[in-house]
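Session log. Operator J.P. requested a structure for one protein chain; no other inputs attached. Running the standard single-chain path with token output.
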Amino acid sequence: MAPRASTKNLPEGDPATAAAPPPPVHVAIIMDGNGRWATARGLPRVAGHRAGVEAVRRAVRTAAELGVKWLTLYAFSSENWRRPLSEIIDLTGLLRHFLRMEIADLHSKGVRLHFIGDRTKFDPGIQSDIAEAERKTNDNQGLNLVIALSYGGRAEIVEAARLVALDVAAGRLVAPFPLSVPKGMRWYLVYRPFRTEQRDFAAFRRWIMRTAAEPAGRRKEARHAG
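Structure written below.
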């Protein structure tokens, strides 16, 4: 066994003795590339999605161990509905399995579940499982795990505008209202969908990462789009 390195003679402020920086309050992960990962290995695309479920377990465990307060997983975008029907069935089947088999373990670890996106696109059984997962973990005080399903930027803007219109009609908001925090579009886009207070998001989305890069051609198209 190698001897333990001594820090006795290291200068003050040396990186070797510096305390670890605090973890980010919020980490968001765009779960991308599972299908390409499987294809590159000669496996069916569903094998990549199943591997993604194991990656979720590792991400949740690591975030909790590091003291991250919020972990958002962008799991199923509105664009995913355009995939072949067989792949959609595989993906929604994995979601159903997660909701029915993983929630008890997450609950025992104090994880609180939140779901954002248009859940009405899913079948009634999955919608019921989502609601039950949120209800069951609502009082937990550990990691807040946010799962984005059937999400999309355009849809979120439309939904925020709809919520504004409803609040104006109900007299909760007097139009015109300032498009700034705390009662502006940011509140309708960020705070209200999570049903939480603004103070909980002082460092909202500190880190965001994507698990797989786009192919070169698609990156070029995205860079010049608009």
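Operator note: The first strand starts at residue 26 and ends at 30.
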